[in-house]
# Entry
Amino acid sequence: MVPHFNEVFIMTSAQYRIESRCPLMGSLLPPATFKQDYANCSLAVAVAVKSVADPTRQQVRVVHVPSGEIVFQTTPFGQGL
# Structure
Protein backbone atom coordinates (compact mmCIF):
# COMPACT_ATOMS: atom_id res chain seq x y z
CA MET A 1 0.00 0.00 0.00
CA VAL A 2 1.36 3.39 -1.01
CA PRO A 3 1.08 6.10 1.68
CA HIS A 4 -1.15 9.01 0.79
CA PHE A 5 -0.01 12.61 1.03
CA ASN A 6 -2.34 13.24 3.99
CA GLU A 7 -0.73 10.44 5.99
CA VAL A 8 2.73 11.87 5.40
CA PHE A 9 1.51 15.37 6.25
CA ILE A 10 0.06 14.19 9.58
CA MET A 11 3.32 12.50 10.52
CA THR A 12 5.26 15.73 10.01
CA SER A 13 2.93 17.98 12.02
CA ALA A 14 4.42 20.09 14.80
CA GLN A 15 5.16 17.83 17.72
CA TYR A 16 8.16 19.25 19.61
CA ARG A 17 7.93 22.05 22.18
CA ILE A 18 10.64 24.08 23.91
CA GLU A 19 10.21 24.47 27.67
CA SER A 20 12.17 26.23 30.40
CA ARG A 21 11.67 27.69 33.85
CA CYS A 22 13.98 30.53 32.83
CA PRO A 23 12.81 33.31 30.53
CA LEU A 24 13.57 32.35 26.95
CA MET A 25 15.04 35.07 24.78
CA GLY A 26 17.37 35.12 21.88
CA SER A 27 18.77 38.25 20.29
CA LEU A 28 18.70 36.61 16.86
CA LEU A 29 15.31 34.91 17.26
CA PRO A 30 11.85 36.50 17.13
CA PRO A 31 9.77 36.25 20.35
CA ALA A 32 7.15 34.04 18.63
CA THR A 33 9.85 31.38 18.23
CA PHE A 34 9.38 30.32 21.85
CA LYS A 35 5.61 29.97 21.67
CA GLN A 36 5.44 27.64 18.70
CA ASP A 37 5.80 23.90 18.27
CA TYR A 38 8.24 22.40 15.80
CA ALA A 39 7.86 19.53 13.33
CA ASN A 40 11.60 18.88 13.31
CA CYS A 41 13.33 17.68 16.49
CA SER A 42 16.76 18.92 15.38
CA LEU A 43 15.43 22.41 14.69
CA ALA A 44 13.69 22.53 18.08
CA VAL A 45 16.93 21.53 19.83
CA ALA A 46 18.96 24.13 17.93
CA VAL A 47 16.47 26.88 18.80
CA ALA A 48 16.36 25.72 22.44
CA VAL A 49 20.14 25.95 22.81
CA LYS A 50 20.22 29.39 21.20
CA SER A 51 17.39 30.57 23.46
CA VAL A 52 19.32 30.63 26.73
CA ALA A 53 22.25 32.90 27.47
CA ASP A 54 24.24 30.20 29.33
CA PRO A 55 23.13 26.56 28.98
CA THR A 56 25.50 25.63 31.83
CA ARG A 57 23.41 27.75 34.23
CA GLN A 58 19.92 27.66 32.73
CA GLN A 59 17.87 24.59 31.99
CA VAL A 60 15.99 24.27 28.73
CA ARG A 61 14.43 21.16 27.24
CA VAL A 62 12.67 19.91 24.14
CA VAL A 63 9.61 17.74 24.68
CA HIS A 64 7.93 15.37 22.24
CA VAL A 65 4.35 16.60 22.74
CA PRO A 66 2.37 13.41 21.93
CA SER A 67 4.38 11.22 24.33
CA GLY A 68 5.62 13.80 26.85
CA GLU A 69 9.15 12.39 26.45
CA ILE A 70 12.02 14.82 27.00
CA VAL A 71 14.20 14.40 23.91
CA PHE A 72 16.81 17.01 24.84
CA GLN A 73 17.71 18.80 28.06
CA THR A 74 20.55 20.97 29.29
CA THR A 75 21.72 20.34 32.82
CA PRO A 76 22.91 23.38 34.74
CA PHE A 77 26.47 23.05 36.05
CA GLY A 78 26.57 21.41 39.47
CA GLN A 79 23.29 19.54 38.98
CA GLY A 80 24.47 16.10 37.88
CA LEU A 81 22.24 13.76 35.96
